Amino acid sequence: MKIAIVGTGYVGLVTGACFADMGVEVTCIDVDAKKIEGLKRGVVPIYEPGLEQVVIRNAKAGRLKFSTSLADAIDEAEIIFNAVGTPPDEDGSADLSYVLEVARSIGKLMKDYKLVVTKSTVPVGTSAKVRDAISTELAKRGLSIPFDVASNPEFLKEGAALKDFMSPDRVVVGVDSPKAKKLMEKLYRPFLLTNDRMLYTDIPSAEMIKYAANAMLATRISFMNDIANVCDLVGADVNMVRKGIGADARIGTKFLYPGCGYGGSCFPKDVKAIIQTARSLGYEMKVLLAVEEVNEKQKKVLFDKLMKHFGNLEGKTIALWGLSFKPETDDMREAPSLVMVEQLKEAGAKVKAYDPIAMNEAKRRLGDEIELCADMYEATVGADALILLTQWKEFRVPAWKVLQKTMKENPVLLDGRNIYDRKEAEQEGFIYYAIGK
Known about the structure:
The chain is an alpha/beta fold. It has helices at 10-21, 33-40, 51-60, 97-109, 126-140, 161-166, 178-188, 203-234, 238-246, 267-280, 286-298, 301-310, 336-346, 359-366, 400-406, 422-427, and strands at residues 2-6, 25-29, 64-67, 79-82, 114-118, 147-151, 171-174, 198-201, 317-321, 350-354, 371-372, 385-388, 412-415, 431-433. The termini are far apart. It is elongated, with a radius of gyration of 24 Å. Helix 1 (10-21) crosses helix 3 and helix 8 crosses helix 11 (286-298). Strand 12 (385-388), helix 15 and strand 13 form a beta-alpha-beta unit. The mean pLDDT is 96.
């Protein structure tokens, strides 16, 4: 089976590599010639555990190819995945210009039946626009070539994307023709030896499922952060509260961890997009508006605690552990660290930081605004306070005695992910602050 994937960003590259690993012949296409040339040499432009090895292995085997031209791959491809970006417009809605440009290109190039699958996260109704764009281009050519469109949203967690793709908890496919369904069944058969994890829906429902899933997860995070902030006020321990409500089978324990706010490429963008989609139809999603507001405020909670402790940060040195929005990725999009750095610099503080993976990305985004350090302890040299923003594994059991030597007297520790034990930290001489406890 041969497929083409347009877009070699996070979703497109992971999708292509994983399909190739199951024996599918895949051509990944991107307009960025520099990126494509790098991929041909085995240079993977994003960090994702295990991805580089899978890409190199399948490229060597000839199952995974890279090109800047859709025309080179479209004739042989039975299925074309559209995995280009859908960045937010100024009003928060998803920019569909790249998705529709790919659709127009398919309409200009196709010579026989194609199944065109939208993999990008797009608003409900996008597949109809894709269909119209292809049909318009075919009409311009005076041709009537049959084709189908489908929706196959991704549910990949950064840092665990390969596992999520290879062993999915569900695969959602929106189709409106038996032929399209049969092709998608054939494609996914190696991943799903039983069909109990395949969910076939109409196309609008498949498009909606992706947004609804991310919106629900974002809601749980913001809800728990709201509860944590009240715990701070009343003297409760949010960890105990989390365990207490998570024991209820109707609620469960996942995504109930309070912290310093969510970020990344999905939750912020998708929450904004679904709010804007509803608004364009005359409906206000008040719950999600509150989710978004809580999250923006949560990114400032640690700074407020720091200000309350010191009163004035002018001339203070603050160390940051973690810059990516979550562990096992170098993605800093909408990361709490960006908000923290901005606030600290405005307050006159000197900022030193370390992240196991995201240092190059931090250099690109922040330049010389902060001092990027070679390791976690170098970042704390001369620091008045240490703020944990990302719960990388190497931060979980710090050498307290080293920190006592590197940091100034009466060191302050702000635990933005609640991974440390208060009693232990205080016994080691630290003034300890956390989220909701």
